[in-house]
């Protein structure tokens, strides 16, 4: 897994803030540790995460802690890599078929399915994810779709939010431009 030691994104348009992530090899896969903080709709929040992915880029564990005006929270998601999940130690069948974690607070997590899917140019795939909200760390299923439309460009849709855009990535397939959400600064 050829990634830089660290990367940073500046939130834009929908919120104001910054995300920083650090990448290191871990048990044949990768551990990604990071934090993101923002003000969105007049509300401040802070989210810290540690995500472990296996060699096939399937998320195996995500430890997330956060703080907002509503309090401090922590949640742990675990998967055997088979698309079944436990949230805080309890099986959650709503997440069956998900192989990725997607943090509402993070642009970096859009890197995970792109690596895992390894789509050829023009190919598309559904990539439902275990979605973790920024303010309260609530976990839900997020239906999403990626289509590779160029060497480093992917058409992305999340129907529940009526959202679609073209995500631009760098040569390491880390998000560079997430229109309306964030832009890479390092």
TrEMBL record:
InterPro entries: Glycolipid-bd_prot_put. Pfam families: Glycolipid_bind. This is Glycolipid-binding domain-containing protein. It comes from Amycolatopsis speibonae.
């Amino acid at each position: 897994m050829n990634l830089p030691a660290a990367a940073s994104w500046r939130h834009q348009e929908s919120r104001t803030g910054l995300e920083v992530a650090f990448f290191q090899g871990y048990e044949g896969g990768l551990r990604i540790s990071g934090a993101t903080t923002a003000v969105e709709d007049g509300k401040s929040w802070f989210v810290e995460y540690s995500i472990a992915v296996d060699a096939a880029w399937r998320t195996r564990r995500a430890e997330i802690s956060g703080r907002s005006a509503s309090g401090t929270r922590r949640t742990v998601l675990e998967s055997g890599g088979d698309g079944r999940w436990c949230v805080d130690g309890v099986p959650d069948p709503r997440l069956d078929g998900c192989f990725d974690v997607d943090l509402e607070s993070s642009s970096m997590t859009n890197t995970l399915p792109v690596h895992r899917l390894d789509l050829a140019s023009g190919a598309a795939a559904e990539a439902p994810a275990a979605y973790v909200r920024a303010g309260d760390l609530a976990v839900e299923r997020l239906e999403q779709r990626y289509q590779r439309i160029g060497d480093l460009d992917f058409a992305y849709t999340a129907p529940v939010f009526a959202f679609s855009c073209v995500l631009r990535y760098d040569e390491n397939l880390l998000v560079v431009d997430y229109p309306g959400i964030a832009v890479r600064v390092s």
